[in-house]
Structure prediction request, 471 residues.
Amino acid sequence: MRTDSSPGTLPAREHLPAGDAGTPVLDVVIPVYNEEKDLPPCVRRLHEHLARTFPYAFRVTIADNASTDTTPLVAARLAAEIPEVGTVRLEQKGRGRALRTVWSASDAPVLAYMDVDLSTDLNALLPLVAPLISGHSDLAIGSRLARASRVVRGPKREFISRAYNLILRGSLQARFSDAQCGFKAIRRDVAQVLLPLVEDTGWFFDTELLVLAERAGLRIHEVPVDWVDDPDSTVHIVRTATEDLKGVWRVGKALATGSLPLDRLTRPFGDDPRDRELTGVPHGLARQLVGFCVVGGLSTLFYLVLYSAFRQAAGPQTANALALLVSAVANTAANRRLTFGVRGRGGAVRHQAQGLVVFGIGLALTSGSLAALNAAGDSPAHSTELAVLIAANLAATVLRFLLFRAWVFPDRTDTGPAPTAPVPTAARPAPAPYAWPHQAPTHLHATETTTSATTPLRPACPHSTDPGDTR
Prediction:
């Protein structure tokens, strides 16, 4: 198991210690935009619930997305009134931007967020974060589409939600059930690695984060929730759906081209059993055997079809050589991607050249078998030729797998330090954690530059005004 702590890796998941009473274990972020009316009852109800039921110290952070009403003043009053409440002010809109800013700067080991309307029953909050505290899971999401969930909402939103999740399953092979539920949590050490890879700053932020986490081999815990839709929601459904579909296309394209640094997808992430070195057990042998057998079976059928087609116009040796050549190129390409997990175009020509050498060995075995068959009798039946070729191909297949594994696609992680995941040059560096005083939490301001770098949050008095704020 890898234990290095480079930026592209995560430590092993462990149960979070209880810690000091004043150290927050959970930071719940509430992104808001012009919510001066709903914010006070939401924060007070959430605080009362956490104080009554949550066994660790906690914090509630109001993330104001450039509100134009009195939301900043309401948030500042709540922060001054309740010691466990803080507020962050952003001068640009975007739920994803707000979550990235607060999560990147928070010192709590477990980070969560929920919508201000509290559509989700708060009794699901402790089950949501418990697997992250215990070290069992890396992320957790509330699901309105689980069988045990109880949901009250209109047919239009129900249809859109289910259709969107079907699109995610079909296009991005997502296995989580509900990407849009505003009720999620993540471990801070996981967020520090994944957040720089997430480009979206709006509503698609959640989906992109979950897809990358799933592709990186992280464990996502799902909690059935009770959900009552807010009829006064200000979310623009058509615009949000359009932006989400654009995000699906962008992420799908990045995954297809291998431009995301998620090599295995970079799991060095933590204590994955696949990272453990077991004496006498070759790394990934079982998975590679299964993949090789599937590819080999399909390649054999492809080869036999080609042989039968070429046999109509050529002799057995010529038909065998042509069929084996074409199927060998396809077989090498399929094994490269599916069996041995090699992505991108780097080394593809060399792999095909080595595959042709392996093809030559297979050609010698099959051609020798055909020559022996023809020497044993004149004009053997076509079915007999196929039977001999199948037997010869089985022998060639075993040799091909050994050569592929040891020579063409060797496991290079066994010969040196495993590579760490590169961080994109445009990634946002995580600001230093901000300090939260024991009295009224500070009113913070954060802006983003055009280079997407998040500036450190600077404290200010809760009742002070920003000189650049003209409101």
Summary: The beta strands are 26-32, 58-65, 85-90, 110-114, 139-143, 150-152, 183-187, 220-224, 226-228, 443-446. Residues 151 and 227 are 5 Å apart (CA to CA). Residues 1-7, 264-270, 413-471 have pLDDT under 50 and may be disordered. DSSP finds twelve helices and ten strands in the chain.
